[in-house]
Amino acid sequence: MNGHRRTWFVVLPDTDAAAAVAAVWGTAERRALHHPSGRPWILGHWPADEAVTAQAGPVALAVFGTSDTDTHQLRRRAEHLRDPRDALALTHTDGPAGSHHLIATVRGTVTARGSLSGLHRLHLAEVHGVPVLSDRADVLAAAAGLAPSTERLALRLAHPLPHPADTLPLWPGIIPVPPHHTALLAPGGPARTLAHWQPPAPERPRAEAATALRHALHRAVAARTRDGGLVAADLSGGLDSTPLCFLAATGPADLLTVTIGSLDPHHEDAPWADRAARHLPGTRLVLPAEDLPAMFADTDTPGPQGDEPFAWTRTRARDEAVARLLAARGARLRISGEGGDEVLQALPAYLRTLAPRHPATAARHLRGHRARLRWKLPDALGALADPLPYPAWLAHAADRLTHPAPPTTQLLGWGTEPRLPPWATPHAAALVRDQLKALRDARPLAPQHAQHQVLRMVRHSASAMRQLVDATARAGTPYSTPFLDDQVLDACLAADPATRGTPFAYKPLLTTALAPDVPADLLRRTGKGDFTPDAHQGLARHRARLAALTEDSALARAGLIDPDALRQACLGLYPTGTPYAALDATLACEHWLRAHGSRHRTAATTTGGT
What we know:
The chain is α+β, with helices and mostly antiparallel strands. Strand 14 (about 255-260), helix 8 and strand 15 (about 285) form a beta-alpha-beta unit. The protein starts with 7 loop residues before the first strand and ends with a helix. About 55% of the residues are buried.
């Protein structure tokens, strides 16, 4: 199966009421799968090769997305399912490789789950009294007649947005299904979600963890090359994308490696990419930065506006241009190393669990991290000793939204506190503060601080990639991200974080895992390229067009930004300590509100809010 993303789907329970609700989505250009009872089960619009389905008596299974399964294999699984509990036992680690939704209907009960990263996700809402699942919140909102909320949109101005605020749909009334949960739709009962996965204990030694990671990555890449044809793969020269090219070269597909240049003539990626290319078969495509749209190009025009603001505003024009070029050459997908940074490195908070077990090793690692990040010893020790539980940390962070940029020693705790950009209004800050403080029952994604941080970053990356996959699929060649696959994530999280996060080696888990597959000299790289100069030049080139967005800003009309402050940031000296990601988020929210605000009154207006 290729990696093209379906447009949308909804999942219905096996009831007469649900069969009547199916009419909400019409019939024109709509695909439909049915329960064994004959009632509608999954409705939507997706490419023909996007789903694998099978039925065995009163059981039916469907896989949407990238996988290494086929109808015959899926039917064999269906034959072994006797009741819904068997469907719940279908785990991520022993199921199909790839990244996908897995949906079952077993004797009238529906179970559905997405991917652990959140790249394939699910939402739940009631439509005319019937619980319905969908991979897109906006599809449910339109069917249920819900209006978006400017309060929820204000959250998206904060960076980095903490868990679980980052999962809240922009339409109140829609419930996100956590990525590690399975949703159940049973006849005659309310919809439920049950946890089916928890982060593994981070205890595997390097050799054992590396073996598991190598197996998972081989399966992940094979799931993308198994159908042959032409497959593109990023060859940046980085330690994430380069090994994937070598794995892709062993499959049945023809390989087209893609190297995208930088405006910086001294960029570190280029010589490493050239060195790797000498070892690889297939065709290589080198795209100079000068021949592609600059960063921030076309950010004054709306990109795709789905169920959340499009996070990749800075590079959208470039990504779509490359997708069109690859499609013209016949490539059916583009394998990317995105997600590698998130899963292959443990953040320094692992020292919290290492210190009680191996104090001497922890002290040596702390010295290494201090040297690398220029921490003062009292600051680092204070951050390590911070006892705040996660809900209290969230409440504390809520009071510091407009403070200066947080210190990097926060990597020793629950993570970097969110900040609002200097152009956010006091009204926006109050909205964000109140919503974060309302999350008083929030629990971390894992008991260990370091594991929690990894999962939060993975889910942030997956959310952005989900949008980019949609955009590049429409342009002709979708992104595909093996590092965000379930088995890969599980293998990395199980590794001893002192191995994964050591300050004395660069991504040692990956270099150990793929030593048999990649020339040794290519695994000796100890860093990655920085595209900040490209961002600086792109902003300078397009600053006037960006500033023009403030002339009639929807965010300003909603009271969320000060248009003069944003205009000054675009036209003058960009504010020190404010990451470009904050500008990306603001531009994304502006376009999203313009698109959705033109069709609906906001929930705030409906309920009498500001």
